[in-house]
Amino acid sequence: MKMHKYPTLGVVLAAVAIVIWAVLHFEMRTGWVLFFIVAAMTIPFTTRRMLSVLFTGTPLLMAIAMIYGTPACVVAATLYALMAAVFLRLNRARTVWILCAGFGYMVCEAFLYSAAYHVLKPVNLFLAIVAMAFVSYLVTSLLRNERETWTDRFPLLLNPILAASCAAFLSVFDHPFVLLVALPAIAVIRYWTKIHESRLGGPAPNATPAASPSAQ
């Protein structure tokens, strides 16, 4: 497989800039920490492929974006991505370069879908939720196996739609136990992603990504 280093390096540098921006604009609110903890707890139950890690925690990261804003979402996504990278590396599932690329795409995705939501929310809430899902789908579709086409990836549109819908439900209620509602959605997303990975076969654990860093 062929590594397109410069576009990927650009994404990683953009992610670093976004993280710096988020830290500078971050408000010291701690309500999002519980959402993050639950999201982080899903990492060990993923399939040890970056695509699975990326999708599994999305409902809770999107909820953070909706409730606490873009800076909090970016900070949470950064911590989530770093924990996922450490988990995958300890299991020797990915190379360092692919982990860096995955980190960059995770952070950029969180920033973009959160920004899309907050820009469109004053116009129409439903439109904002739909835009959030489609932005997430488009960004994650850049992280794909060399055997995948856009047509192959289309069924995974279910994941961001389900994640955004679940996040919207969580954002309506302000109670810790409402996080339990996210667990069935997370289970469905994990199962649906695993089916997709199995159908394509997935690359070898340390395979180098194609046009974009592989998430498989």
| Overall body shape | globular
For the termini, the CA-CA separation is: 14 Å
Element string (H = helix, E = strand):
HHHHHHHHHH
Largest sheet: none
Domain count: 1
Radius of gyration: 16 Å
Question: What's the total helix number?
Answer: 10
Task: Report the helical percentage.
Answer: 55-70%
Q: Note the beta-strand portion.
A: under 5%
The number of distinct β-strands equals 0
Chain-averaged pLDDT: 81
Give the structural class: mainly alpha
Parts with pLDDT < 50 across at least 5 consecutive residues: 202-216
Name the descriptors:
mainly alpha; 10 helices; 69% helix; disordered C terminus
Ordered list of secondary-structure elements with their pairings:
Layout: H1 5-25, H2 32-41, H3 50-56, H4 58-68, H5 70-90, H6 96-120, H7 125-140, H8 150-153, H9 158-172, H10 182-200
Could you give a quick summary of the protein structure above?
This protein is an all-alpha fold. The chain is 69% helix and 0% strand. The chain contains 10 helices and no strands.
Structure explained in plain terms:
The chain is 69% helix and 0% strand. The chain is built from ten helices and no strands. The protein is globular and about 40 Å long. With 216 residues, it is mainly alpha-helical. Helix 9 (158-172) runs antiparallel to helix 10 (182-200). The protein has one domain (5-200).
